[in-house]
Every structure is written in C-alpha cells, then in structure tokens.
Amino acid sequence: MFNWLRREDSNPTVGLDLGSWRSRRLSAQGLEASQSSAVLWDLSSNTPVELGDRAQALQGRHPSHWTFLRPFRHGLLADFDAAEELVRHLLEGQRGKLSVLASAPAMAGEIELQVFAEMLREAGCSSLCLLPSAACLAVAAAHPPPQYPAVAVLELGHQLMQATVFSRGTAVHQLQQRGGAEELTQRLQEHLLRRHWLAVGHTELEKLLGFISARSGREDWLEVRGKDLQSGLPRRLTVAAWELDRWVELSLQSILRMISQLLEETPPELLQVILNQGIFVGGGLSALQGLQEALSAQLSLPVHILPEPDLAVARGLATLLKDEETLDALIQSQVLAGRLG
Hints:
Layout: E1 14-18, E2 22-27, E3 30-36, E4 39-42, E5 47-51, H1 53-57, E6 66-69, E7 72-73, E8 76-77, H2 80-90, E9 98-104, H3 110-122, E10 125-132, H4 133-140, E11 151-156, E12 160-167, E13 170-178, H5 181-196, E14 198-199, H6 202-211, E15 221-228, E16 234-240, H7 241-264, H8 268-277, E17 279-282, H9 291-299, E18 303-305, H10 312-322, H11 324-332
Parallel strand pairs: 1-9, 9-10, 11-17, 17-18
Antiparallel strand pairs: 1-2, 2-3, 4-5, 4-6, 7-8, 11-12, 12-13, 14-15, 15-16
C-alpha cells in the first residue's frame, strides 16, 4: 500500500503531479507550471543538458553522446538524478522552505516511496506529504473519499492504468495494470510500419491519438505524414478510421477486464452504491473519443469522464492545497497505510 510522509511543522503550499508524460506544479489557485517529463543527459560530462519541454522538442535530434530520459516509468521512479533535476526545474522561482503535497507513484512500495521522498528532499522540498493519485482523482470528481461510503475511480495514465474503490477514505480494493496511451500509440506505430511501410514521428502519433475512437463503423479518413521505409523519402498516407479504430478495441477490452474484476471483488454493500453512482474516470487516455459510451454500454453503469481528464490529478491536488480539512481527513482515514520518516 501507499505510505504517507508528512512533517507537522507546516501545511503544504505547493503541489506536484509527477507523471510519466508531463509533470505539473500547482498552488491553491490552480496550475502554475507544466513541463514534459523529459531530460536530455550528457553522458560525457554526466550532467543534464535540457529539461522539460525543451528536452522533449529535441528527442531524436540530439548528438549521440546525449541520451533522452523519462525519469518516471510505469508509475515508478526510473532515474533518481534525472528526476531530481526535473523537479528542480519545475520548482524554479520558488523561494524559501517548500512544503509540498505530491501525488505518489502508483506502483511504489515502501522502499520505492522512501527513495521517491529522498529525491524530492534533494530537489529542495523541505516538508512533504505524499498522496496516491487515485485519491486526488476522487477529490477532483467532487467526491473526496472521507465523505462518501463508496467511490470508484479509474485512472488511465500514459503508461499505467489503475482502478480503485474507496470507502470512507480507505482504499479497500485497487487493481493496477501497465498500459495506456503509450501502449496504444505503439500499436498504431507498428501497424503503419507493417502494413504501409511508413515510419511516423511523435507529432503524427499524437495526431493519431486524437483521431482514433472507441466508436465502431466510422467512415472518416486521416492524412498521415511520415518516411517511406522503401525509398527513405517523405510520404503522405490517407488512412481509414476503421483501420485504426480496431486497435482501440484491445485497450478497451483491457480496461473492461480490469473494471469487471474490481467490481467482482468489491463487497456487495459498496457495490450497490457504485452501481448507482457510477465510476469516475481521469487520465490522458480517458479523452479518447467514444470511450464513455463504450464503457457505459459494456458495464451497464454510469461512467463519468472528468473535464480535462489529463489534468484531473492536478486539479485534485490544487483542491487539497486549499482544503486542509479534507486533507487531514484523508490522513486520519489512513488512505496511505503507515508513515515514512
């Protein structure tokens, strides 16, 4: 389970949502900074060269003695030094002692959380409070766990999907599975390579992710630009929606299996509340066209996609920064089992 780390000398004033794709800094007023979770590292000098959006813009276009890093992978801290530099960059301009509320890595155990907390300390955070992203999602849905007998949330992140049932603030059941937007874009990329001999870059893949849909029978078409693998020259390809949408079905079935298993293992008293109330969904992949209708039809329960779903965790953190009562209730209800320190 998750663990807390909280110093009692001050209340959090800065929020950090450190994701595998983007990292954000929050205040009680909302989003203050957003950067790509990317670092370019010089192997010859063992120092960072570019951070955040500037590093992302140079991916695939940097010298061979630089390496492109993503400090957070699959809900875990993947590179301590790169993560520390990225957090420093995100906190640039902040002065004085920093009391930070951060979303905790989803798959982290106690040792991983100790390392995660140490990384934040080294980056300049003097006081820390770690909170699971699922709890932030519930707060963003205006259903803070301590105030509701049962809340079900589904987070569809860039590399990780997790479904959680809360009861009075405690995570009574949680399932996690690797997958998400990155896995789906990789399938699309491999399909274009195998079937059309077309190599596409990150910009085109993002366009594809916004085009594909969970709805069946679409007759739309999309122009995709890339490099022809036979000639090595640029090429344009017009591809049908149905050809790409069928890859969404694999991700959809994976999501449905995870939610079904979660509901099957939820106690009957809580399940009845969830069936009436529905499940709240956030994370980047939940912006997929037609996802809400597809999930509702298959599960026979209400599915609520949160507004700007990729910012749902960040909005939950911002809400908790100004709602000390709810934050304290989360601590007292032991959403995170135990303490670090």
